[in-house]
Specification:
The complex is a heterodimer of chains A (285) and B (397). With 285 residues, chain A is mainly α. Chain A is 86% helix and 0% strand. Chain B is an alpha/beta fold and 397 residues long. In chain B, α7 packs across α8 and α15 packs antiparallel against α16. The chains are: A mainly alpha (285), B alpha/beta (397). Bound molecules: adenosine-5'-triphosphate and magnesium ion (MG).
């Protein structure tokens, strides 16, 4: 009754991956190396710096984003808690992976969001892909990714980017589409080029939505840390993983608390920043 | 040559305008087409031209296509059919780059719904056009500040649009359009959000500005008084078609159809119409003729009175009886000496201003222009007829 298409798909995929490895192995390796270089640099800086200096920097960033002393102190206290939980090293590793992943997600996500906002065709084509990226279990692409890039942090970053970019694309698209039509028209009437319109009107007015996308991307990236640690990304996820593997629920809980703390820190800072970007909406009122 | 030349422009909104266009040409109405195919006819077969330096007003009820029409002039909307020439250039043939340059350099626009940038301050909004042109910050903000002052918003430079009232926002929109010093100004209900006092001031300001800058202005309004006050010519749109194009006087005195008539029926004509639009040619112009010559001339032309105008200016009126009497009494050699001083009015005066003179004078009043020449005459009867057209008199009876 059934026609067997599962096996041909599986075979074709395997053949394709093998072909990629054989023919473009060098390319993937150099991509992996480049990524790794950046990542290691950030990670080493974070781990080399004395924790108190990292705490100060975190506090300064929080203040710059929020202009709120209380919030900044709260965030510093949370970061201090990370160290007190014995998770400092792991947290720095996780932050490094996150920063790189989120940066890549932004570099890919915002332009794609702009593209889909511009073109209904691009949107129709990209939408199913985004659905797929968000629903397909990450292991499905982790296996080939590990084959292409080797175990470790690079496939972890890749998996994180695949998982965490779709909301940014969607919210960028939404944000730009929601910009008041009459404002865009005014810009056009003054002879703005597409780029001028994008840079001067559409992106700034879509920023609240874009910032929300970045915020979600960060949260989803954090959700990936445990899975990422399974392919050797280290970090706080590894603590949770070890807790699981060694039947040590206490360790698992501590790791879990660490992830939650990181989530709160990133969330509060990015939200505060998002709010300040749209200060004009609240002036006087 | 006309600066703006719109030829047979039709605009059908919808995904497949061709079929609707064919139906339209076959005589279907806007409502039928909307019901049949869900396509909206925005404009149908519009042709008009706007001369350089003119204020061209477009009027019509809501939904008649005014905004659609003005958006064609800088191609915010492309027509379904027809041609648009600006300064002899077919703007429908411009590439995207050329079109952007055209909009940057030639046109400025004020929007019905303001279209201000909410994330920019008043000053940055006004400077936007110059920024798009690539002017350095200091220069553009200096010019922008001048325009902010011109529209009376000094002190609000650093506020955001949201912090301003509707009328103030509209003035920001006006300053933004003027700041690039465009040759063509497109103003879509630019004053409609203003209260009557400010509105009057802005109209005065526009007229004053126009007398200095000589822009070509396409001005859209709902308000006939505004149209009559500002417009050199007025186009009246109805359901996407042109009912009439003409000077204010032509529209008022000779409405093309019932739609236009309905528009103009409540106008205070006395305030709007000027003397020159209703005056009659003078029956007889006399200068320094002798009494006999004057009498002969009066008899030949069948004129009962003559208007005496010589090197010393307008001297007044002589009647045939007075000439006859003077000849009989041998009292004077020229008409100048027997002319009875009479009031005169300027051709540009409104009928309301002219009315007292026409009522107090036994004879039709002479219309004398600034150069001192006799342009025509105006009697109270004519004024009365214009102010109270025959149709309305019948209706009143
Ligand atoms: N983008 C559009 N898509 C579809 N129909 C439109 C569009 N823009 C305008 N129309 C239709 O075209 C007709 C004319 O609209 P337009 O906005 O030009 O009227 P208007 O004379 O400016 O009215 P108002 O005085 O209310 O501003 C209306 O029937 C309107 O529904
Ligand atoms: Mg309109």
């Amino acid at each position: 009754m059934f026609v067997d298409i599962g096996k041909p798909i599986a075979d074709a995929t395997n053949t394709f991956i093998e072909w990629l490895i054989v023919n473009y192995g060098d390319v993937f390796e150099s991509i992996a190396n480049a990524l790794l270089t950046v990542l290691v640099l950030i990670e080493q800086a974070l781990r080399w710096a004395p924790p108190w200096s990292v705490l100060i920097v975190v506090g300064l960033i929080a203040y710059a984003a929020s202009r709120n002393l209380l919030l900044s102190f709260g965030i510093v206290a949370l970061a201090w808690l990370l160290g007190s939980l014995g998770l400092w090293e792991q947290a720095m590793q996780t932050i490094a992976v996150m920063l790189v992943s989120v940066a890549i997600a932004i570099i890919i996500g915002i332009p794609l969001g702009v593209l889909t906002a511009r073109s209904d065709i691009a949107r129709a084509l990209l939408n199913p892909v985004l659905d797929l990226m968000q629903t397909i279990p990450s292991f499905v692409y982790l296996i080939p990714a590990a084959m292409l890039f080797g175990l470790g942090k690079v496939p972890a970053i890749l998996a994180t980017v695949i998982y965490a970019t779709p909301p940014l694309i969607r919210l960028t698209d939404l944000g730009i589409r929601q910009v008041d039509h009459s404002v865009v028209e005014a810009s056009r009437a003054f002879g703005a080029t597409r780029w001028q319109m994008l840079k001067g009107v559409q992106i700034p007015l879509a920023l609240p939505s874009i910032m929300q996308g970045i915020n979600q991307t960060m949260m989803m990236a954090l959700a990936m840390v445990v899975i990422a640690s399974m392919i050797g990304a280290r970090g706080i996820g590894e603590t949770v993983l070890l807790g699981l593997q060694r039947n040590d629920p206490g360790k698992g809980l501590v790791g879990g608390i660490g992830i939650v703390i990181l989530a709160i820190i990133f969330d509060r800072i990015s939200q505060a920043f998002g709010r300040r970007l749209q200060a004009y909406r609240t002036v006087g009122g | 040559m006309a600066l703006i030349d719109v030829r047979h422009v039709t605009k059908v909104f919808g995904s497949r305008p061709e079929r609707a266009l064919a139906r339209l040409k076959a005589g279907a109405s806007k409502e039928e087409i909307l019901a049949e195919s869900n396509h909206t006819v925005g404009l149908y077969d519009i042709s008009l031209s706007v001369e350089p330096g003119e204020i061209f007003v477009v009027m019509g009820l809501s939904g008649s296509g005014k905004s659609t029409l003005i958006r064609h002039l800088n191609r915010l909307i492309d027509p379904t059919e027809g041609e648009i020439f600006i300064d002899g250039m077919d703007i429908l043939k411009l590439s995207i780059r050329e079109l952007e340059a055209f909009r940057r350099n030639k046109t400025g626009m004020v929007f019905q719904r303001f279209g201000l940038f909410p994330h920019r301050t008043v000053l940055q909004n006004v400077a936007y056009g110059l920024e798009i042109r690539g002017e350095p910050r200091a220069a553009r903000e200096e010019k922008a500040a001048e325009w902010v002052a011109t529209v009376g918003l000094t002190g609000y430079e650093d506020q955001y649009p949201e912090q301003l009232s509707g009328g103030m926002q509209q003035r920001v929109g006006l300053a933004r359009a003027l700041c690039t010093d465009p040759e063509i100004l497109l103003m879509d209900e630019a004053f409609s959000a203003l209260d009557p006092l400010i509105r009057g001031q802005m109209q005065d300001q526009l007229i004053e500005l126009q007398s200095r800058l000589r822009k070509t202005i396409v001005f859209i309004t709902h308000d006939l008084d505004e149209a009559l006050r500002l417009g050199d010519r007025i186009a009246i749109l109805k359901d996407g078609t042109l009912s009439q194009i003409g000077t204010p006087a032509e529209i008022l005195l000779d409405p093309a159809d019932d739609y236009v008539r309905a528009f103009v029926k409540d106008v205070n004509r006395a305030r709007v119409l000027t003397v020159e639009t209703v005056m009659k040619p003078p029956p007889l112009r006399l200068t320094d003729e002798t009494l006999e010559q004057a009498l002969a001339e009066m008899q030949r032309r069948g004129a009962e009175i003559g208007y005496v105008l010589n090197a010393r200016g307008y001297r007044g009126v002589v009647t045939r009886d007075a000439v006859n009497a003077a000849i009989a009494s041998h009292s004077g050699p020229t008409v100048d000496e027997i002319a009875v001083g009479a009031p005169s009015i300027a051709p540009g005066a409104s009928l309301a201003e002219a009315l007292p003179a026409t009522l107090s004078s036994t004879f039709p009043v002479a219309v004398i222009d600034a150069a001192g020449s006799l342009e025509g005459i105006l009697s109270a009867t004519e004024v009365g007829e214009v102010l109270m057209p025959a149709r309305q008199l019948e209706a009143a009876e």
